[in-house]
Design goal:
Elements lengths: L11 H27 L14 E7 L2 E4 L6 E3 L5 E2 L4 E4 L4 E5 L4 E5 L4 E8 L2 E15 L8 E6 L2 E5 L3 E7 L5 E6 L4 E4 L4 E4 L3 E5 L9 E5 L5 H16 L21 E6 L3 E6 L1 H4 L11 E6 L3 E6 L6 H4 L2 E5 L2 E5 L16 E6 L3 E6 L23 H7 L5 H4 L2 E4 L11 E2 L2 H9 L9 E3 L6 H4 L6 E3 L4 E2 L22 H9 L9 E4 L7 E4 L75 H42 L12
Parallel strand pairs: 9-10, 28-29
Antiparallel strand pairs: 1-4, 1-6, 2-3, 2-5, 3-30, 5-8, 6-7, 7-9, 8-9, 9-12, 10-11, 11-14, 12-13, 13-16, 14-15, 16-17, 18-19, 20-21, 22-23, 24-25, 25-26, 26-27, 31-32
Length: 649
Amino acid sequence: MRSTRRTVWPFGRSISSTILFLLLTFLTTTIIARAADNDADDGEDYDVKARVVRISLISGEVNLKRSGNTDWERARLNFALVEGDTIATDAQARVEIQIDARNFVRLGENSVLKIVTLRDEGVALSVVEGTASVRLAKFDRDREYFEVDAPKTTLAAEKKGLYRINVSRDGRVRLSARDGGRARIYSETSGFVLRDGRTAELISQGADAGDWEFIAAGVADAWDTWVEGRERYLAQRLHYDVQYYDNYVWGAEDLDAYGDWSYVTDYGWIWRPHTTVINNYYDWAPYRYGSWTWCPPYGWTWVGNEPWGWAPYHYGRWVYYNNYWAWCPRSRYYRHRSWWRPALVAFHISFGDNICWYPLHYHQRDPRSRNYQASDRLRPLRGDEIARLQRVNPAFYRAVSTVAAKDFGADGSRVRPADGVLARRAINAEPLRSDLPVRPAPAPSDPGVAGDRTGSVTVARPARVAPPRELSDRPTGAATRNPGVELDNELRRTRILNGREARPDFPVPTAGAGGTIETRPTGAVARPARPVREIDPGLNPRNDGGRDANRSPDSSGLPARPERVRPKEDVPVRPEGNEEERAPVRVPVRPRAVNHRAVSRRAVNRRAVSHRAVSHRAVSRRAVSRRAVSRRAVSRRGLSPGRTERRPR
């Protein structure tokens, strides 16, 4: 009878536990590695990565015309501006545009500014009229360019500093450089360098039209005083703390004035708004107090009403930590750099009537990115998780905001918190992966929008506004500008160097110690070489007496230049044969004693001889003079010399 008894090894259970532990460790490591790899919103996740700037301060009526549109709309704080947008200010209006963390452009009243180029390689602006000040606090000309066009003028910045551009209604241009600034100035016919503390004014009318007047920068006026006060204010409030976020995050410099930073184990550095700031808004949540605006090429972009509502709504993630909402830059999870996004939210459309959205959580990828996975989305807790936690934190549901589809993107649309049923449906459903199927109503002059509304909901456009006055549409710049192309190098070659290349550097010996060689250029351009004079090979200067040796081929009929005769130099005679030439041997000779009496006698004899010679010459001169007188007398009588007059018998 076979026994059914099994042998149980004492170490079998330990082997199974070890295998299970290794398997769990492997799976955990794989999951962590995938999460760390997926947490980074790399630049390859998005097709659109156009550079943007923002309106950081606005006062009075400021209008905006989007790229490709002809209608104007009202500009607001924290608006995103892209290449091709145009800004116009009304009377008593001012606006500040933040280019990046440290560079600003400010416009005065009755001014028009167009963003011609806005890329990582550089920025090019066009001031059609009005007053503009450009503050470049962080600028490296070797890595980027910053140019400003005015009527018939182009300013290309070379150094950090403060630049002011004034364009009058009649086209008169005045340019100034301060605070260490230096720029190249180009017009249609000239080019020069404008140095710190100087002002150049282009004469646009009259006999001197096209000429420049140079004066010292004048005393600060009301506009300069306002700019200086604004910069002092920002210097006190802005803090550039790269320990919280990387260098590509900008617009977060003023967060210290509205909240506090703290470091937590789960998320790293987080920023929490002050309670007094949040209490100004009823039932506040991220992405609730603001509006959606259409900003090509990104599409729908969130515009926060909070004065700090730029960086927290376009970078990083919002997290709910210790019973409050906080913004996390998440910079340590990015492999290369942080990328600006129009909004970091997940959309959900409920029955076609309501559009809901909520902020992405810490480990959730953007649903509109290429590498989004369905498992990344925020999901409800399972039954066992609910049993352990007893309840779900209701803060995630309260963070869901909604608006009617017909009011989405319209002026005055009121965003409200979603009710419990709508909030649960939005969180439990799969977020929208594609672009939101909502488009603004096309304007009569916008042909490009009408063909992109297939299967989408049409919503009202922002209210159109009319410009306060007839805006000038005159061209600007010293030459025609194409977006994305700088003009500095081309204008320098054509306006300053006149089409020639700059003279290359060459070594110049200096009087420094050790015979050092200093490399420095001389001359503005490479001087053309002198043409070589060609001589007819058929003429031999030895056969024609040298008359045609120096005559150019095209100088027929002109007298030949006489040949220059050079005196012959004495040539030492070489020794004959193989006799070597030897240097004479110099033997030192002792000088003789001087006999002063002999020297005195020789001097007396020389004086006597000299007196005798003078006496002989004087006698000879008198004799010659008498003969000449005699000959003249004979000539007067009509007789030839040597003949005597015969008397009659």
